[in-house]
Model the fold of this input.
Amino acid sequence: MNYSTFVRPHLLTLEGYRSARSEYIGEAILLDANESPYPSELNRYPDPNQHTLREIMGKLRIVNPDKIIVGNGSDEIIDLLIRACCQPAVDKVAVVEPTYGMYRVCAGINNVEAISIPMDRNFSLNVDNVLTQIADCKLLFLCNPGNPTANVIPQLQIEKLLEQFPGLVVIDEAYYDFAEMPTSISLLDAHPNLFVIQTLSKAWGLASARVGFGFGAIEFISILGKIKPPYNVSGISQKQAVYALQQPELKAERTRKINAEKIKLAKMLSELHFVTKVFSSATNFLLVRFKNSQSVFLHLKETGIVVRDRSSLAGCENCLRISIGTADENKTLIEALNRLK
Ligand SMILES: Cc1ncc(COP(=O)(O)O)c(C=O)c1O
Done:
């Protein structure tokens, strides 16, 4: 694959920042980074290459750790991708909407135009239609499972896009752990223009630690590595992330619980006369259409319950996005909604 078709040319030869320590392995007296010598949990810079984290994630997802980059949340990875591939005020990205807002925001921050590709009415993709609209884009952002659509894009459609789009196809799998679907990571070997994003912020319970993962071809990952700040993930976060990843059964148990709560909540919501649709969900949230979402939103807010108003997004008219909480939180939500009757 010729990366110059979607990587900004000056980055191909750019010399990244190198810390003296990343070239030295083993015990040593560390006088290279102007840190405080007095020991505490925090006096040393963290591992800039996040070795342990990438090793563990590599085993978990059965992928070479050299194909993984760690970001300060997946939001940092989204920004890195745009900066790696798009010349400000020249290049474009394509965003299949409705979707996660940060693709468009990151493009805007970088002065990169984001072309909107609307999904069909039932939030499905017409791949041929998408392909005709994105020919001059460097990146295509797809969220799978979708936020806020909560549905899954069939793998065959993703493969067709990978085969026919010359730019980078970014599949954001933030909600992968809740879904019963194959990860697109398995397509990496066959498709060097694929990039997959996952995060520890959802099923793994570490939103505050800010740890996201990017999976891509080794050459492309090394270009992203030159752009990212060397110490982008704190030592505390790396430690917490390693700890969480070593307990996949805890994540699996919590995911099962959330999915079970989701089914109960979806049923209760669909029985309310002012709910017109509960979209099926492969995520840890429900997209719900109301007769009048604004009045429901305000009522919940007054009760002290915050949900996400998605009604201004195309295809999401009168929709609120509701995260699945604990059994008690979900019960309180339903009680509050019942008071609206
Ligand atoms: C689809 C999607 N991608 C990425 C993110 C951001 O994740 P992170 O916390 O890893 O930055 C979110 C957060 O809601 C999301 O919904």
Observations:
- The mean pLDDT is 96.
- Residues 73-75, 100, 143, 147, 172, 174, 199, 201, 207, 212 surround pyridoxal-5'-phosphate (CB under 6 Å).
